[in-house]
Amino acid sequence: MSDEAVKEEDRQLEEDRQHVSRAQAGDISAFEALVEAHRDRVYGLALRMTRSEADAAEIAQDTFLSAYQHLKDFRGDAAFGSWVHRIAANNALMRLRHRRVVQAAEEELQGPEFTERESLAAYPAQDWSRSAEGKILDAELGRAIQEATDRLPEGYREVFLLKDLEGLSYEQIAEATGDSIPAIKSRLHRARLALREAIDRFYNQGGATG
Fold first, then answer.
1. Is the pLDDT of residue 136 over 80?
2. H/E element holding 187?
3. Looking at the predicted structure, is the pLDDT value of residue 190 above 80?
4. What letter would DSSP give residue 61?
5. Domains by residue range for the chain, with CATH
6. Distances from the Cα of 4 to the Cα of 49, 122, 147, 185, angstroms
C-alpha cells in the first residue's frame, strides 16, 4: 500500500471515529455521514455475494438499520468499517441460506446440480498464483475469473469473497458463517483451485492479450 493510500485510510478511520462519537450522542447527520462513507462497499459486498441488485439493496438498508440500532454497543475495538462490513456479511449469508432452503425444496426431486466430487475436488492440487495479479486488469481475464467465481457453489464463493476480496480474517469469517476455521480453509483452498483452473484455461486457450 502506498504512503498516500495509508494516509487516506488513516484519515477515513479518524473521520469514522469522530462520526461514531457524535452519532452515539444523538447526531443523526453524523450517522448519515457514516452511511455515505461505507454504503458503496456494503452494497458491493452484498451484490457480489447474492448476485442480485434487489437483494443487495435490501441487505445494505438492513445493515445500516442494524448498525444504527446497535451503535450504542459499538466500543471501537475494531474499525467501524470492519464492524459494519461484518453485519453486511451476516445479512447476506442469511439471505443466501434462505435462498438455499427454497432452492432445495424446488430441486428435491431432481437432486443437486453440483457436487464436490464432480467439480472442485477433481481440480489438480495447484496453489493460488499471485503471478496473475499483474494481469488481472485485463478485461477478458477479468470476465473469465468473474464467470468462474459465479460458478462456484455458494459456500465456496462466500468464503472466497470474504477472505480474498474483502480481507476478513478466518476468525471473522467463522463468526459470520458459524463454520469452523478448518472448514473455511478447506473451502477457500478449493475455491482458489477452481479459479486457478479458470486462469490456466484462459491462457491455454490464448485468451491473454499483449
1. no
2. helix 181-204
3. yes
4. H
5. 3-106 (1.10.1740.10), 120-204 (1.10.10.10)
6. 30, 43, 33, 33
